[in-house]
Amino acid sequence: MLISLLVPSFFTPPVHAETLVVSPTSGSLASAIKAASDGDTLQLMPGSYPPVVISGGKSLTIEGAVAGEGETILGGVSVSGGMLTVRRVVFADAEEAVMVEAASMLIEDSLLRDVGSPHAAALSAKAGAMLTLVNVAAERIQGPQGAVSVTSSSMLEMQDVMISDCEGGAAGAVYAAGASATLERTSITGCAGEVGGGIAAMSGSLSMSAVQISDSFADLGGGLYIHGATVTAADIDLHGNIASSGGHIHIEDGSLTWRRGMLSMGSADIGGGVSVVGGDVRIHNVLWHRLSALSGGGLSVSGGSTVLAHCVMASNQADIGAAIASSGGTVSLTASILSGSVGAEAVASTHALAVSTQDTVFWSNSEGNGLGSVDVSSGLHFDPLFSNTVGGDWTLRAGSPGLDAAFGIDHDGTAADIGLFGGLDAAVLPDEDGDGFVAGRDCDDHSAWINESESDAWYDGEDTDCDGANDFDADGDGFNSESEAWGGDCDDFNADIWPGADEERDGVDSNCDGVDLVDSDGDGFGYDADCHDDDPSIYPGADEHWYDGIDGDCAGDDDFDADHDGYVPARYAADGEAADCDDQDPFISPSAPEIAGDGIDNDCQDGDVPAGDDSGDAVTVLVGEDGSESDTGAEEGSSLDSAVSPGGCSSVRGIPTWSLVAMVFMMMVMRRRQ
Questions:
Q1: How many whole angstroms separate alpha carbon 174 and alpha carbon 509?
Q2: What pLDDT, on a 0 to 100 scale, did the predictor assign at position 483?
Q3: In 3D, which of 427, 409, 309, 421 has the Cα closest to residue 359?
């Protein structure tokens, strides 16, 4: 511990050191202090003790009662010279609880309650003194400058300290002027002062680590005020602080170097988060969230130099410059993200060359990205893909365009990420599964087999490569494979094919409706199959209604020839055209052979021919001298190529008549069967 390095003899009592037990009787503590030797311990019994003065350069320890034995209440202590350690003591109802001058004092495991006044600080160190607080709680404390005041080259160290409900004429909780102050694991809540509701650093130096300042108020710097001091900070959170200028921090001169932390829910007229009037400001890896002001919702700069790197400014609001307003000085943005700004453009400036950007993302800012002379056209514009902002997780999830997108390197040796967790000043993210990919970047940090270096197997429900893509949409067209119950993509490996895609005459069913071309009438058949695609009652396979002039089933046949024998009924036949006397039977037509005695007018000419009657419309095939044939009725004396068989049956071109009769009979049998 630092105090042991500065005063090692303080924690190594002389061999002759003794422990003196002191009761709360009148004058007993003062007498014990006077009688004690260098290195002695005064053990105070439970009870109340009046204020005491320790001088003469002694090194003493005062210890109160252990837990459960009752409180040891001390009205106050003034130390001049020497070293004093106080443990397990309650400082209560005292105008000045602790004053250290030209001496060293350690207060440990103790409580300060209702101490200080407008005329005297609850704790003060001056004239080169050193005051150390370890595991101390302070409530309802005050002072003319601050509840804790260190001046005149003094030193202040605070570790594991909680200060609440405090008030000061200058700063609320801690006032350091011309001094050196170090705060670690310190919480300041509900304090108020004129400058620096939480802390005022007036020259000298201030170092802070793991400090929280919340719900505090001041005219300048609701949480922190800097004037001429050198301030370094790491892992600092400021929440709900309010001021006229600099809701959380106001800087007039000096410097601030801050790495990691958060500014949230701050408000002011100027600079809801930070107001820079002058000085040198460098802020890295800090979240600026839900800040508001009239000008400069997150940051207002009117002088000095301000550099923001790997910051996220999200959901901030102002009438001028929702994230940043600049009226002087310079502002540089590197590898940062400005998103969700409302009320005004994200960045506003009244003078040229005031704001510069590099590798900075502008996303979803409701009123635009820049105003006036601000040129953010070179900025990046994409969804950064934060992991879970509602749950306070501002890491970039796997697949974010902001990963490995900035100059420099990260802790993992890759190119720097944009945003809070990029660069070497960022917090080191955990890698719980040991696969080399940290939280946020690893979409499942509990499985070493799931990270962005793995190959993804489609349709198994696991995003193995952490690209954030739908595991049931292999081609990334927004439609799941139709093999899934809630899918619909008929070709999940071609991003040009999906339900609703534009259809072309290319032999490909691009819109997954089962046909190649667009189905205008919605009957399930596209232009390539539907002969009438503007009528849903006409399509291949529809019921055909004969003789209406419409090819209802898209078969391509004559709508007036139902039996497909090549002849239409007389009412539809043209003048002089042979007509079909039975359009339901393909074996009855003007070109069909007549079968005598079957009761049917097969050839649609003069009815049926009686059986055995070879007259009437019987036909004989005539063969001319040139070998040509013609149909005619048999006439005596005609020149026929015919002969009479021994059985008395005639023949035609050498074919016996009985054979023709048999052929006709066979045709009749076949027709009856059909």
A1: 75
A2: 66
A3: 309
**Pairing of the two strands 317-320 and 347-349:** unpaired
Q: What is the predicted pLDDT for the residue at 88? A: 96
Helix (H, G, I), strand (E, B) or coil at 233: strand
Contact 204, 232 (CB under 8 A): no
Note the pLDDT tens digit of each residue in 598-629.
888 888 887 877 876 554 444 433 333 444 44
Contact (Cβ atoms closer than 8 angstroms) between residue 89 and residue 44? yes
**Intra-chain end-to-end CA distance of the chain, in Å:** 112
Token pair in block for residue 452: 């962005």
Can you tell me the distance from the alpha carbon of 37 to that of 34, in angstroms, rounded to the nearest whole number? 8
Q: What radius of gyration do the chain's Cα atoms show? A: 51
CA distance 198 to 215: 9
Q: Are 537 and 546 in contact, with CB atoms under 8 Å apart?
A: no
Q: What is the mean pLDDT of residues 628-641?
A: 39
Query: 554 is written with which tokens?
Result: 């898209």
Mean pLDDT along residues 114-141: 94
Q: Which residues pair with 644 in a beta bridge?
A: 650
628 CB contacts (<8 Å, ≥6 apart)?
none
Are the CB atoms for 97 and 78 separated by under 8 Å?
A: no
Residue 349: DSSP 8-state: E
What is the total residue count of the chain?
A: 674
Residue 344 is classified by DSSP as S
Strands 642-644 and 650-652: antiparallel
pLDDT over threshold 90, residue 362: yes
> At 578, is the pLDDT very low, low, confident or very high (cuts 50, 70, 90)?
confident
Residue 528 pLDDT more than 80? Answer: no
